[in-house]
Amino acid sequence: MLLSRQTLEAIGKPGGHLIERAGAVEKLSRAEAARESEQLRSVLLDSVTHEFRTPLTAIKASVTSLLGSSSHSPDSHSPEERQELLTIINEESDRLNRLIGEAAEMAQLDANKVEFRFESAPSASRSRKRSTN
Questions:
Q1: How is residue 76 annotated by DSSP?
Q2: ∠ at Cα 94 (88, 95), nearest 5°?
Q3: 46-55: which pairs have CB atoms within 8 A and are 24 or more residues apart?
Q4: Greater pLDDT, 34 or 74
Q5: Of 15-19, 53-57, 108-112, where does mean pLDDT reach its minimum?
Q6: What gap in Å lies between CA 60 and CA 85, rounded to an integer?
Q7: Rounded to an integer, what distance in angstroms lies between the CA atom of residue 109 and that of residue 113?
């Protein structure tokens, strides 16, 4: 059975429209996914910026307090207060360093540049033997 050209065209037109519509839906889906991805990046950037600023604010406030006291009167902070401010600077610097390290690791993961280094570790049985000797 041979179909006429008109019949084939009649069958093909709805199929063509369906293909065009599927292509348009796919483009719309990709555009929506790109928009959502950009929104997520923006939220992530805001969060990372806040996480970096928190320790920086504590460090800056502590240093400013110490510098302000040394220029006016060296006795404006007790030794305990000075020690507390220095401890804040130390702890927040460590926190900032850790955050930067984590951000660098995330960037490497995102860029697929992570290398795994496997090292042998003592097995549980060897560890027990050492502890009993």
A1: S
A2: 85
A3: 48/103, 51/99, 52/96, 52/99, 52/100, 55/92, 55/93, 55/95, 55/96, 55/99
A4: 34
A5: 15-19
A6: 10
A7: 6
Reduced to 3 states (helix: H, G, I; strand: E, B; else coil), residue 114 is coil
Higher confidence at residue 49 or residue 73? Answer: 49
Maximum Cα–Cα distance across the chain: 106
CA distance 60 to 56: 6
Per the model's pLDDT, the better-predicted residue between 13 and 116 turns out to be 13
Q: Report the pLDDT value the prediction gives residue 48, as an integer from 0 to 100.
A: 86
Alpha-carbon torsion, ordered 121, 124, 129, 130, to 10 deg: 40
Joined tokens for residue 34? 């790109």
